[in-house]
Structure formats: C-alpha cells, structure tokens
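Continuing the series of single-chain predictions for the mutant panel. This is the parent chain; the variants come on the following pages.
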Amino acid sequence: MGTIVERRRADGSAAFRAQIVIKDKGRIVHQEARTFDRRTTAKAWMDKREKELRAPGGLKSARIKGKTVGDAIDKYLAENRRGIGKTKAQVLEAIKGFSLAEMACEDVASDDLVDFARALADGRGPSTVLNYLSHLSAIFAVARPAWGMPLDREAMRDAMAVCKRLGLTAKSRSRDRRPTRDEMDRLMAHFEDRWRRGRSLPMHQVVAFALFSTRRQSEILSIRWDDLEAEHGRVLVRDMKHPGEKAGNDTWCELPAEALRIIQARPRKPDESRIFPYSTDAVSAAFTRACKLLEIDDLHFHDLRHEGVSRLFEMGRTIPQAASVSGHRSWQSLQRYSHVRATGDRWEGWAWATTTGDAPSAPHS
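Parent structure:
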C-alpha cells in the first residue's frame, strides 16, 4: 500500500514523497520511497512500482536490488561448499577493500571493472591483476542464477578483454630459476647449523625433501605418517592443487629414493600425525631470511619443485614417469620440460641427499 506525503523544502518549493510499504502478517517485509516535484509524477511512479512488486518474483527482485558486490563476495564465501583455497579467499577479502565492493550489483558496468583493474595495477603486476579479476569473475558467473544478484557476466567478459588489450593483465611467465649446487650447499649448511643450535626447525630436511620429492610447500607440511607407504615407495598427497578441483583431489605420488630416505630419518612422535609438523609461515620466513642473508638472489621455495622435475627429465624419465612423481594430471603441463636433455643426475653424490633426524631441542612452529 502506498502513500504520498507533501512536504516543503528549505526554499519553499513543494516536494511529494511517495512511499510503498508491504507487510506480511503485520510485519514489514519491504519498503521503499522516492521524492518528486509533482504529485502526478509521484503517483505514476508509485502505481508502476506497486504493479512491479505484485508481479511474480517482483518482491524478491526488489529485496535483492541494492545488494553490493561486497555482499555477493560474502555470499560466495559463505555458501561455496567445494571449498575455497586460502589464496582465493584472501584475494576476495582484499577486493572488499576497494570502492568497487560498495557498488550496487545492478550498477556495475565493464568500465567500472576496468577502473578497478587500473587501481589494482598501481603496485601490482599484470599477472596479479589477472588473478584478482579471475577470482572475481567466478562470483559474476554464479551471482545472478544462484542468488538473483544482478551482476553482469558480459560486463566482466568485456572488461577482461579490454584489460588484456591495454596490458593491465597478462599471464605469468614460467619461472626457469634453478638453484646451483653451491647455493644449495650454502643453504643446507646454514639451515643445519641453526637447527643443531636449537634456533630453527630442520629446514635442511624440508628443503632437501622438496627438491627430491618435487612436492609443493603446502603439500610437504600436510603429509601424515598414515599417508606414507614406504614399502611401495609412495605417499598420498591430499587435496593436491588442481585448477578445477580445490578439495578431495587426493593423489598417490611416487617417492624417489632420496626423498624416502629423508622421511625415514625423521623421528615419529606418538603425539604428532604429520611428518613435517611445521607451519607454512615459519618455513617461508626461514627460507626467505636465509636467501637474503646468504645473498642468494631471486630464489623461491617453489623453485625447488621446478628443480626436482627438471632433474627427473635429465635422468631420462619420460613424461608419464615424471608425472608419477610430480603428480601432474595433465601431461601437457610438463611439455615445458620437453627440451630438457637426458644429461644425468646433477645431484648424484650430493652430500646432503641424506639428512639426519630431528633433534629434541628443535622448535616446532
């Protein structure tokens, strides 16, 4: 039921406020109002809106109208049952800090998304901007069909095309950084020295295992003793990273002999289920600090995986054989290694291929 109330503005002119209030069992379920200069215009709007609200789905649409991009992000985070990776969740939360998140869904156009990309590009590289837009596009894909929130998928597609053309976005380049034997010797000596003095976790074991197993940092720190089948030389990697599957992607991976020996040298404590019971933050910080201290330039922990996979091909492994270790489900992902020649194992005879077990005083972080 709508009403029109005449009011006087500060300059003495008349203003007509049309207000619509809808109740259900005495409870207000929806209300909206607009102000006009003429009563006839106010009545025309009120009659039109009441008709729209009485139409099938009209009231539901009105409730959704005005929802913001930030509301859609919150809805997505709360209702996604497939599980959202830590990085994606962090990116979506970060997007809520931009003005785009305050815009009503129905108002977002492609130029607004391009402006958002420009704001992101201030201090971020093209690949990072692409990552932000890609995660946001997942919400544009489901908002309207799932929740009736009018985010325009075409606007997002247009914006992605424009951003690519303008150079605001670009795919990240494959890193080819490989550690030298000297760099690894210095890292391992540094890590073992700190560990033996009880000042750090056994990073020499974590680093050597990363190189020989080709496992990602998060995978290494998640492996449980129950996931190990030493007699078969393999380990179960749970929720392995995969573009289309964020959870439940458990994969058995072959363990090279060197990686298995490192695990077998680890102490198995009754109250600890994980083989490497340390936090990703502690491992990342320790690796970054050591590289800086030792003046090892541009080496990332993830480069150890690249080194490990390269080693397999240099040892003469075929793509299927390398995939059995690395866990790549798409052999196409390993095509970048097809140029690697079988030159032998550059880590053969490396003194750090076998590392000692944990010390009682070594801290767990």
